[in-house]
Amino acid sequence: MDRIKIRGGKVLEGQIFISGAKNAALPLICASLLTDETVTLTNMPMLSDIKAMNILLEQLGTKIDEFNDFVDGHPAKTYSYRTKEATSLVAPYDYVRKMRASYYVLGPLLARYGKCELSLPGGCAIGARPMDIHLAALEQMGAQIEIKNGYIFADAHGKLKGAHIIFPGVSVGATCNVLMASVLAEGRTVLENCAKEPEIGDLAELLNAMGAKIEGIGTSVLTIDGVEKLHGATHKVIPDRIEAGSYAVAAAITRGKIELINAQSATLRRPLQVLKDMGVRVSETDRGILIDAKGCHLVGQDIMTEPFPGFPTDLQAQFLALMLTAEGASMITETIFENRFMHVPELLRMGANINVHGHASAIVRGVKKLSGAPVMATDLRASFALVLAGLVAEGETIVNRVYHLDRGYEKLEEKLRAVGADIERIKDNDEE
Ligand code: EPZ
Fold first, then answer.
1. Residue of the nearest CA to atom 17 in ligand 1?
2. Which among 116, 124, 176, 194 is annotated as catalytic?
3. How many CA atoms, within 13 angstroms, populate the side-chain half-sphere of residue 64?
């Protein structure tokens, strides 16, 4: 398996282009299942999760064309999806176990064909992650749901029916899935207590471009008037706010200065405020956001993860790493997932001072220095936190299980090398 080798101590300076958002692209791809016409997505990131979703759609009967494109002078992919007629309504275990987001085929297939069989994803490295909220809402829309042999068998016996649904908890996945289910349902659907993450807004914009009637985009109440049929559309994926936030931390942790090209500050208000409160200079530029930590003395801050517009759980690990280089103590509270401090034991091996209390909070105390070590993480964002620690650690850090990073960070080493990091990928068969 590939590894990443980092020699710490470089001050990062320059520009990083922010790619299209993985967590927007994944439901957008599945939205293409709602029509027999072509849906074209531009500014698609080049990530293994996108490839995995494409393979699943091909298995369902979607014809996919891939084009090399440019967005603001930077290479990106464009994909065209056409599902003239689905040849399968089954998302098998082997696909779903590799990528949970495969569950986004449920809403569209149920809406268009009235049926879907989906392997239940099960738990993962960051928590139990059930699908009860998705399923209860689809039942309210008239679907019959049965769980058997590890699969969800969903049957709407024809068309789904509009319903008034109040989600019992805020869920990004359930909001997207039920939104996609509702656009072809009979009558009006009202969804209350929706997640408001920008990726959901992006999905709703594509659906409206395909002929859906969704109101309330960006708010916690979405009103959807079902239509008979959707048509094709072309849509540009929003920039990845989590990638942008991750590189913002790379600038701050190395006390460097990076302009995040195409990053949108409206999607990053809380994390940017934390950086400012720590003592980092943050400003908007014509092309994105400038993070300037040169000569800054950083002070620890408390963070609590919350649904958008609160502090994102997907930036918790990276900010925790940053707090290690700040003065004083910081309390990090994770409220979204029950097992999202798996990076802590690895950071401790690099000389960190962190005390985890139960599953939900950690006290981080700034340390004089971190030292390089071989480390590995169990999820994508935790792996990036280890890369960040490696960038400031004395000596050499080897990050194992790089496949996690490849799921969500396009050209990670290339982007970091371009701003001065000493980082390289050791291929499985390379000599060290
Ligand atoms: C999405 O996951 C993202 N994934 C996650 O990003 C992100 O961490 C998460 O939203 C929160 O922002 C994608 O967009 C593909 P949820 P999702 O449903 O939709 C509980 C990354 O690193 N819940 O909002 O699965 C759930 O267990 C990934 O890019 C139920 O109890 O998250 C969790 O505690 C990791 N029942 C909370 O709600 C349900 O039916 C929020 O989960 C659904 C969720």
1. 173
2. 124
3. 22
